[in-house]
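Extended Data, panel c. Modelled sequence:
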Amino acid sequence: MNYLREIAGPYSKLYIKRDLLNAGEIHAWAISEGFVTTSNEMHVTIALSKHEVDWSRFKPQTDRVNLIDTRDRDIRQLDDAYVLRFYSFELWQRWTYLRTNGITMEHSDFIPHVTVSYRSPKRPLSSIKPYTGPLLFGPEEFKPFDFTYKQKLRNSEY
């Protein structure tokens, strides 16, 4: 955390994410469902503040989140990304806590999702069955917000 403070300073824009630990399984599912490439850095974004935040008010959660519940999963296009949306009360609670304790978010609601790809699949989205296996997320990572992150992710597909 001290290293991040040196980079970001006590107040900076804040990005909080959890990496998807079983991304290889989602990659295999996505290819079998018609995606040509997949994101090389699958994760769920918990918070993204384009306004400065006092990082000292928050501590990263170090636990893992294992989601087995498959209800309400779907595949959608979100801007230029194709995402797997899913339900998680635990992640929604964390987002709500951060929002009510001073992190300004761009969106007024939270639907957790993992970017599967930035390239359209070979078949219509309506014919793609959502991934139904577990989603295993690692501990939270706090990073300074980088406005070029989407371009970097787009360039890192495999």
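DSSP finds four helices and seven strands in the chain. This feature is highlighted in the accompanying rendering.
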